[in-house]
Design a protein that fits this description.
By secondary structure, the chain is mainly alpha-helical. It has one domain. It is 82% helix and 0% strand. The termini are far apart.
Length: 62
């Protein structure tokens, strides 16, 4: 029973989270302006960008 409820609520929760993230991002742009825009270009919204992972792997090699 609980699994059924979770499966139905999951997309709604994800959508709410994404919408909240976009709103917070807009607020951050308003507060920090170009500094935040620059940060945003370097960092993924939800997951690290591929080049970030590749750079981390390269730096970790002996």
């Amino acid at each position: 029973m609980a699994d059924h409820i979770l499966r139905e609520l999951f997309p709604i929760i994800v959508l709410a989270y994404v919408l909240l993230a976009y709103r917070e991002e807009r607020d951050m742009i308003g507060k920090f302006g170009e500094r935040y825009e620059e940060y945003r270009r370097r960092v993924g919204m939800f997951f690290p960008r591929r080049d970030g992972w590749l750079r981390l792997i390269e730096e970790a090699r002996p």
